Amino acid sequence: MLDIQFIRDNPELVAEKSKQKGYEVDIPKLLELNEKRRKLLAEAEEVRASRNQLASELKNRKPSDKEVQDGRELKDKLAKLEDELKPLGASWLELLRAVPNIPLEGVPVGASEDENVVAKEVGVKIDFDFKPKTHWELGEACDWIDKERAAKIAGSRFAYLKGDLVRLQFAVINFVLTTLTDEKILQKLISDNNLELVAKPFTPVLPPATLKTEPYVASARLNAEEVTYKLADDDLWLNASAEHTLATMYWNEILPAKELPIRYIGYSTSFRREAGTYGKDTEGIIRMHQFDKLEMEVFSSAKTGEEEHKLLVAIQEYLVQQLGLPYQIIQKCTADIGKPNASGYDINCWFPGQDRYIETHTADYMTDYQARDLKIRTKSEDGTELVHTNDATAFALGRILAAIIENYQTSDGHVKIPKVLVPFMGGATEI
């Protein structure tokens, strides 16, 4: 969430930027509640101080009748103030959390994803001498994808992945882990992009698949109706993406400045309801209720937060380039970057079987928006400040498998293995 002092100092700017992101927020009401809350907090603190002073004075002697009465009155007054503060504070926090993050300068202003900007296109689309098939046509023909039987036992938008496609998925996983833990590769990407960052490798993480409500809400990632599955008998939600349990990892903690940046590459099976997408990408394994994902998460200082964002985009490009896939870089507009994001980029890979680009990656920079509500701070000689957070897709595995299948298919119904994955496939060059 935003700093309430920043909102107090810039109410018109916050309202304008919120509207650019598609959010109508009641800034006057928020500020009204904030003033009431501040006064009650000050009054409660004054009463609490009086109680403490009285207790200190009575530490070594018996109180008089008047002092006993004064103590009771102070206790009752404090209880009354706290009873007033509880609902007021809850309403204040709800309104504050409804205010989205402020977009960075340079983020295009737009009312929908249709106004996103294609920053560049990279790679050459393969000129097939036959009509390329879709990944689901090839996947079903090779007995790699079975959605019919999955639907029978789990419902729509689930699939069995089988055989060589499973081996290919684990090859991709090992390729990513090998890349992101290689300091030399990271140093080259940092140098090539003129970034002032350290080449600290990513630490692989297998995060929990569930989150409690409180940290999930504080992360500004819980979208209950559209996205997230709730466990009926527990205060737990199924993880909708690996960064949700990575971003909340240091909830209510202070990180030593010398440990930053902390870079994680998390692998998780994730779950999404995909409400509101009826009829969209129903074929194949592009938009599933269950999917596996490799996600990068970075905790950094405020000074290096935006540079880390640029590094994550550079890593995404490197990974896609190594697979030899044509792609677009999309700079997302204000309405599409998301509530907690200050900046966002997508990568759309080319799918020749469908004759279109499809989103395969996203990179999000949250500044200190997540960290403020999660209370994740860092401490150095200069004092304590909020960390900055970034997350970015390494690979959404179903989508990248589909892209490989469509781009590397052969006329006889096989799929060639991208060169960088051959060592991780036991030397196999085709499946």
Task: Spell out the blueprint of helices and strands.
Layout: H1 4-9, H2 11-20, H3 27-57, H4 65-98, E1 117-122, H5 135-141, E2 145-146, H6 147-154, E3 160-161, H7 163-180, H8 183-192, E4 203-205, E5 210-211, H9 213-218, E6 237-238, H10 242-247, E7 254-256, E8 262-271, E9 290-300, H11 305-323, E10 327-331, E11 343-351, E12 356-365, H12 369-374, E13 377-380, E14 383-386, E15 388-396, H13 397-407
Parallel strand pairs: 4-8, 7-13
Antiparallel strand pairs: 1-10, 2-3, 5-6, 8-9, 9-15, 10-11, 11-12, 12-15, 13-14
Helix pairs in contact: 3-4, 5-13
Model description:
It is built from 13 helices and 15 strands. The radius of gyration is 26 Å and the shape is elongated. The chain has helices at 4-9, 11-20, 27-57, 65-98, 135-141, 147-154, 163-180, 183-192, 213-218, 242-247, 305-323, 369-374, 397-407, and strands at residues 117-122, 145-146, 160-161, 203-205, 210-211, 237-238, 254-256, 262-271, 290-300, 327-331, 343-351, 356-365, 377-380, 383-386, 388-396. An eight-stranded mixed sheet has the order 1-10-11-12-15-9-8-4. A three-stranded mixed sheet has the order 7-13-14, with no helix packed on it. A two-stranded antiparallel sheet has the order 2-3. The longest helix is centred in the N-terminal third of the chain and has 34 residues, at 65-98. With 431 residues, it is α+β, with helices and mostly antiparallel strands. The chain is 40% helix and 19% strand. A hairpin with a 2-residue loop joins β13 (377-380) and β14 (383-386). The chain has two domains: 4-98, Orthogonal Bundle (Helix Hairpins); 113-425, BirA Bifunctional Protein, domain 2, CATH 3.30.930.
